[in-house]
Write a structure and sequence with these properties.
This protein has a two-stranded antiparallel sheet with strand order 1-2. It is built from 14 helices and 2 strands, in the order αββααααααααααααα. It starts with a helix and ends with a helix. By secondary structure, the chain is mostly helical. This is Sugar ABC transporter permease. Belongs to the binding-protein-dependent transport system permease family. It comes from Halarchaeum grantii.
Length: 324
């Protein structure tokens, strides 16, 4: 480890100077490299906001972790003398937490997979050169510009049992009406459907960019070899969309973890419809209703760890691809 650090410092300080015979001489100078004049002169501009951001974000995460190791309730001063993992063991013995964890994973997986499938299918359709492509693409992407609050109120009306558009359409074919929000068996699926409506446009744009980057010759070569359209996309095109799939998956999963705003707007309280409680809503409820700050901090740390599990493989993929 020390050897690698020394090598890094030597490389950072090394400067190559041209010789008269055309070669180069390695020198160590402060005019270039890691400690160059340009680097030191730029410190006043970026170092203060960098330190403030570090304290506000990462400092708060560290403080939250230590808070989760206490037994603090309400706004009492935390006692850091006796730290333990009681809140974490309490969480895994709490049926409410386990239910919220299960709903979080179900929302995360169902929303991400279905959003990717819908986005890819729409992207393939748009890539066929349909008429009014730009207009269709803009309209399809427009819901992503809406806030969770607007989306929740819109779908609250769409799911209305008496005069909601979903039940009216289903009534035409003799189905329903259904209590989409009040029924614990249906509410999570209804939330996933609404979120897909809002964010599948993002997946469509990412996949469309990936499709447009594939050389036309590959489509033509597959057709010359006699491959059907379905086989061409499944065996030739879709495997080349791996990068787009990974990028879109990470962003969509992060959106899924931020579904608190949507669920809060459905009911206007920290208690989401029965059957749709997730870790984010439970964390806020424990902090500001039950006044269990330490328990809420532990839930927050586990949510942060879940986000890291999602993002770390993407960062590793980008690093290995030389794009980080």
């Amino acid at each position: 480890m020390r050897g690698k650090l020394a090598t890094f410092v030597r490389r950072a300080l090394r400067r190559k100077r041209a010789r008269t015979d055309g070669g180069e001489v390695a020198t160590t100078s402060r005019s270039e490299g890691f400690l160059s004049d340009e680097f030191t002169s730029s410190l006043p501009y970026w170092l203060p906001p960098f330190v403030l951001m570090g304290l506000a974000v990462y400092g708060a995460i560290v403080w939250n972790f230590f808070l989760s190791l206490t037994n603090t309730t309400g706004f009492a001063v935390p006692n850091y003398a006796n730290l333990d993992f009681e809140m974490y063991t309490r969480a895994f013995g709490d049926p409410v937490f386990l239910g919220a964890l299960q709903n979080t994973f179900a929302l995360l997986i169902a929303f991400t997979l279905l959003c990717l499938v819908v986005g890819m299918l729409v992207a393939i359709l748009v890539d066929q050169g349909i008429r009014y492509e730009n207009t269709f693409r803009t309209i399809y992407l427009l819901p992503m510009a809406l806030s969770f609050v607007v989306t929740a109120q819109f779908w609250l009306w769409m799911y209305n049992e008496q005069n909601g558009l979903i039940n009216i359409i289903l009534g035409v074919v003799g189905l329903g009406p259904y209590e989409w929000i009040a029924n614990p068996q249906l509410v999570l699926g209804a939330v996933v459907f609404a979120l897909i409506w809002q964010f599948s446009g993002y997946a469509m744009v990412v996949y469309l960019a990936g499709l447009r980057a594939i050389p036309t010759e590959q489509f033509e070569a597959a057709r010359v070899d006699g491959a059907s359209t379905l086989r061409m996309y499944w065996r030739v095109i879709v495997p080349q969309l791996k990068g787009a799939t990974i990028s879109a998956s990470v962003v969509l999963m992060v959106f899924a973890l931020k579904a608190f705003d949507f669920l809060y707007s459905l009911t206007g309280s920290y208690y989401p419809p029965k059957g749709s409680d997730i870790l984010a809503t439970m964390m806020v409820r424990q902090a500001f209703v039950a006044n269990n700050r330490a328990y809420a901090a532990a839930i927050g740390i586990m949510l942060f760890a879940l986000a890291l599990v999602i993002i770390a493989p993407y960062l590793l993929y980008q690093y290995r691809a030389g794009e980080l």
